[in-house]
Design brief:
This protein folds into two domains: about 210 residues, 3-Layer(aba) Sandwich (Rossmann fold); about 230 residues, P-loop containing nucleotide triphosphate hydrolases (Rossmann fold), CATH 3.40.50. The strands form four sheets. A six-stranded mixed β-sheet has the order 15-16-17-12-18-19, sandwiched between helices. It is α/β, with parallel strands linked by helices. The chain is globular and about 70 Å long. The protein contains 17 helices and 19 strands.
Length: about 475
């Protein structure tokens, strides 16, 4: 690769404990000053290959072949690799929110990147890293992770990886769940690293357009699905005359500190209808969905399901209501019990909410997996063995297992490649058409919003839901929003 070789990982192969090859053999080589994008479909081994090169695989996976060098110097596996990684690498994982210590402030979390890099603590460096990603340091710095939106948590974790100016920067799905304006900021950060000596960047992504924009080189693992034709086969619907499933009247939503996020929202979602909510990160979109799900109390207003009052908290909802309203959040890692295999997670809704026997519930699992595009053998896996996209599809399948009348979907396609996203959206379309499923979704993806019957935008300035497909307003990073 030339005089300044950068990262060279050759013949990398990863197996699980049963001896099955997960990925490889594969060469992962990046010259200094360059950006490599590792692309491919969900479950294709992108993350495993990169983590194997860093000797940072999770339990249950092992690198059983391959040699890793940095600027021609071998980096042995084990303690030597861990020391090198700690001193020289900045890493943004697939599930950054779960990596943020819940009791530490944002400023303290970002400063951890300085400690690991060996740079002396600098308040100015922390503030600069936050500001570079569109976060107001004075507003966001004192908060803790539970006071951040999903997009804000993603940017805080990215700032922590960047603040030490690491020699090797590894970003795993860095744009997942981010609004377009923030994606631009991430692209600018990567552009500033390009061409710098002794700096190497690896980006793992299923977003082909982002990869083509930011990367000098690409490594394709598995398939790279083309962006779906989202209008193809879309059924024609007119839900205007259908019965109301969800009704919100004068709903006011505030952050834990009391700052109002949504002022007096009136919203109706009818049988078979999909309503998409757009808006910048931190505007309160996810909090609105969590309020309807019974996970966050409203300040005022009323909620109704099928014309009957919908209690505010899940503890006050009976089995019928728990079944009827299902929520799929941004963070499948936090939603799925790491100690339960996939088949246990998917069988539980049928047993608890539908009254099915154990055998009946288990018999439904293969069909649920097939509907979200997962192989039957995924049933025996634990969440930690799955890719981010696979975990997201399991979370969707679990929600659908309850046969809900209302699905609350928070960025459910952000971790999926184009083919998987299309499969999920087509599935929701068929459930809307055949079973009258009502869907209220939050998204930053304009293509996903185009599948909806109606699109609303949450304007953080007016704190209101307004009709339209613009959905982009000045960042609302002064407003803490619980995830």
């Amino acid at each position: 690769m030339g005089e300044h070789e950068g990262l060279s990982a050759r013949g990398i192969r990863v197996r699980d404990l049963s001896g099955r090859t997960v990925v490889g053999p594969v060469d992962l080589c990046v010259a200094q000053g360059r950006v490599l994008a590792v692309v491919g479909g969900s479950g294709g081994g992108k993350t495993s290959a990169v983590l194997a090169a860093l000797d940072a695989l999770p339990p249950g996976l092992v690198r059983d072949a391959g040699e890793v060098r940095w600027d021609r110097t071998p980096i042995p596996a084990g303690a030597a690799a861990r020391r090198w990684r700690s001193a020289h690498a900045g890493i943004l994982g697939q599930d950054p929110a779960s990596d943020l210590h819940p009791l530490r402030t944002v400023s303290a979390l970002v400063a951890e990147g300085l400690v690991r890099s060996g740079r002396r603590g600098s308040r100015g460096a922390v503030r600069e890293a936050l500001a570079d990603l569109g976060l107001e340091p004075d507003a966001v710095g004192p908060r803790r992770p539970h006071e951040l939106s999903g997009g804000q948590a993603q940017r805080v974790a990215l700032a922590r990886a960047l603040v030490g100016d690491p020699r090797l920067l590894v970003l795993d799905e860095p744009t997942s769940g981010l609004d377009p304006a923030t994606v631009e900021l991430v692209a600018e950060v990567l552009e500033r690293r390009r061409g710098r000596p002794d700096r190497v960047t690896v980006v793992v992504t299923h977003d082909r357009a982002f990869a083509e924009r930011v990367a000098d080189d690409r490594l394709v693992l598995g398939s790279t699905p083309h962006a779906p034709d989202r209008d193809a086969g879309r059924p024609a619907r007119d839900p205007a005359g259908s019965a109301e499933v969800l009704g919100l009247r004068g709903l006011r939503v505030a952050a834990p500190g009391g700052r109002e996020l949504v002022a007096g929202a009136d919203l109706s979602v009818r049988r078979g209808e999909c309503v998409a909510v757009l808006g910048p990160s931190g505007s309160g979109k996810s909090t609105l969905l969590r309020t309807v799900a019974g996970l966050h109390p409203p300040v005022a207003g009323s909620m109704a399901l099928g014309g009957k009052p919908l209690p505010q908290g899940v503890r006050h909802r009976d089995r019928h209501l728990l079944r009827a309203v299902q929520f799929v959040g941004q963070d499948p890692v936090g939603a799925l019990n790491p100690a339960h295999r996939v088949d246990t997670a998917l069988a539980r809704p049928a047993r608890v909410l539908l009254g099915a026997t154990r055998a009946q519930a288990r018999a439904r699992v293969p069909g649920l997996l097939a509907r979200v595009g997962l192989a039957e053998d995924v049933a025996g896996s634990y969440p930690g063995r799955l890719s981010g996209g696979q975990r997201q599809r399991v979370a969707i399948a679990r929600a659908l297992a309850a046969r809900p009348s209302l699905l609350l979907a928070d960025e459910v396609t952000s971790a999926l490649d184009a083919a998987s996203a299309r499969m999920v959206l087509d599935l929701l379309d068929s459930l809307r058409e055949e079973h009258g499923l009502a869907v209220l979704m939050v998204t930053h993806d304009r293509d996903v919003a185009d599948r909806a019957d109606r699109v609303l935008a949450l304007d953080p300035g007016r704190r209101e839901l307004v009709p339209g497909r613009q959905g982009l307003f000045p960042a609302a990073d002064g407003a803490p929003v619980p995830r």
